């Protein structure tokens, strides 16, 4: 079983030593988009409400 661990270490190190892995990545430009103000407001209100609920539940549960 110890020889098996050694082979897995050997395979992982040989895989990570290949320096050309970043050359195969495809880099796409960021796409710009617009979000409506109403949608933004609704998202942040919901997000803030969830945070308040978490704090309340944590307080009710105790330490």
Low-confidence stretches: 7-16
Give the quaternary arrangement of the chains: single chain
User: What profile does the largest beta sheet have?
Assistant: none
Which structural class do the helices and strands define?
Answer: mainly alpha
DSSP strand count: 0
In terms of DSSP E residues, the strand content is under 5%
The average pLDDT is 75
What shape does the CA trace take? flat
In helices, the fraction of residues equals: 55-70%
Biased composition (Low complexity): 1-22
Region (Disordered): 1-31
Keywords:
63 residues; mainly alpha
Account of the 3D structure:
About 16% of the residues have low confidence. The chain is built from two helices and no strands. The two termini are 45 Å apart. The chain is mostly helical and 63 residues long. The protein has a domain of 30 residues. It is flat, with a radius of gyration of 25 Å.
Please give the structural blueprint:
Blueprint: H1 2-16, H2 37-61
Region (Disordered): 1-31
Biased composition (Low complexity): 1-22
Condensed summary:
With 63 residues, the protein is an all-alpha fold. The protein has 2 helices and no strands.
């Amino acid at each position: 079983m110890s020889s098996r661990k050694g082979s897995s270490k050997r395979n992982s190190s040989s895989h990570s030593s290949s320096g050309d892995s970043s050359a195969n990545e495809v880099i796409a430009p960021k796409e710009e988009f617009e979000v409506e103000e109403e949608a933004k407001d609704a998202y942040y209100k919901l997000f803030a409400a969830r945070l308040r609920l978490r704090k309340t539940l944590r307080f009710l549960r105790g330490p």
